[in-house]
Amino acid sequence: CDWSSDVCSSDLGNNTSDITQTGGDNEANVEQNGLFGGFLPAPATNGQVTIIQDSPNGSVNGNFADVFQAGGAVVGDTTTITQTGEGNKSEVDQAGEDHLATITQTGEANEATVNQVGLNNEATIEQLPNGGVSKDNKATVNQADGSGPSEDNEATIQQLNGDENTAEIVSQSGDRNTAVILQQNAVLNTAKINQP
């Protein structure tokens, strides 16, 4: 992680990162890693990341947000990303237990991805119209087991008032997982849920 341009946190947890960017073509990268010196003295807990990419004067385009929360016994991290405009991208990667990831994108041609490995994690992606129709958006949630169990996870994707959107819950492997895709007031949308 480049400490000069990104936000990086390590060691024992309880880290908080808040980023607000105004305008277009911005990039925000946050890494909260529970590992310190190659080992984890205690569980890393309760990391919080909030990224807002917006403009008070109208929509912004071409922003990118990337959040990584993992390493050791990571528990209870929360990530919230809000993007307004067109052509924005977000990705959240979380490993551990009891994590929460929420991505809200307003506009068109946006992409959102959440990857979670572990237990009791929750992912929510909302792709909404910006005063009209929201189209050509893509949302993907992957809650796979990786090298261990993946159970009691929840994944929700909402794509409202839009056309030609794609929603995919790639994999929920394990037991007692919940998956919901809601595509409302729209045509030519694609939805896929895989619970092997």
Name its key features.
about 200 residues; mainly beta; 8-stranded parallel β-sheet; 7-stranded parallel β-sheet; about 0% helix; flat; disordered N terminus
Report, as a whole number of angstroms, the end-to-end distance: 35 Å
Instruction: Report the uncertain regions.
Output: 1-13, 34-44
Number of helices: 0
Record field, number of beta strands: 17
The oligomeric status of these chains comes to single chain
Q: Could you walk me through the main structural features you see in this protein, from its secondary elements to its overall organization?
A:
The protein has 196 residues and is an all-beta fold. 0% of the residues lie in helices and 56% in strands. It is built from no helices and 17 strands. The radius of gyration is 17 Å and the shape is flat. Residues 1-13 and 34-44 have low confidence and may be disordered.
Summarize the structure.
The chain has 196 residues and is mainly β.
